[in-house]
């Protein structure tokens, strides 16, 4: 029973260390680390004690160093012992490097879940169907009332109540109507005002004394 329990614990520990990344990132390291070979050798010696085959990648612009180990157990032990230790007068902070799993040899484009939101859309989404246009609503009562209106007439749109006034539309008389066009609203033979004459702009006088 004890042997079975010990085997289960070892398997659990192995799974936990396997899930961890095998690389560390040293952040905000001293600037002397990139220029002084002695400081660099002392820095690398701290991590070679955990893994002789450790590899270093220096990023001077970010003041960071990536430390890659052979396995995750060495990386976890180095982080546990060297995190927030002093290096050339500065505190060294170590963090696990995040691993990115692409899932294939090529980078696939994102799924077009919301591609229909692009204006204009490249293609409609799956299952989209065009809705039929709604039938226009024609208010024949309103058209009939408008047709009965004539110059000088009035039409009550809203009847007055004890709390609200009435709304009445008064149609103005058209004194400047065009005599050339027919007027269906005027059925009597009243004389219409004469149509104003359009006066054209006078052409400038021609001068014949222009020298060529």
Protein topology:
Blueprint: H1 2-19, E1 23-27, H2 32-35, H3 37-48, E2 55-59, E3 64-68, H4 72-82, E4 85-87, E5 90-96, H5 140-148, E6 154-158, E7 167-170
Antiparallel strand pairs: 1-3, 1-5, 2-3, 4-5, 6-7
Describe the protein in words.
By secondary structure, this protein is of the alpha+beta class. It contains five helices and seven strands. The strands form two sheets. The chain has a five-stranded antiparallel β-sheet with strand order 2-3-1-5-4. A two-stranded antiparallel sheet has the order 6-7. A hairpin with an 8-residue loop joins strand 6 and strand 7. The longest helix is centred in the first third of the chain and has 18 residues, at 2-19. The protein is elongated and about 115 Å long. The termini are far apart. The model is unreliable at 1-5 and 7-15 (pLDDT under 50).
> Runs with pLDDT <50, length 5+?
1-5, 7-15
Helical proportion?
25-40%
Secondary-structure-based class equals alpha+beta
Number of beta strands: 7
The description of the largest β-sheet is: 5 strands, antiparallel
Per DSSP, the total helix count is 5
- Beta-strand content estimate: 15-25%
The arrangement of helices and strands along the chain is: HEHHEEHEEHEE
- Globally, the shape reads elongated
How many angstroms separate the termini?
A: 125 Å
The mean pLDDT is 76
Can you list the strand order of the major beta sheet?
2-3-1-5-4
Radius of gyration of CA atoms, rounded to a whole number: 46 Å
Which terms summarize this structure?
single chain, 212 residues, alpha+beta, 5-stranded antiparallel β-sheet, 5 helices, 16% strand, elongated, disordered N terminus
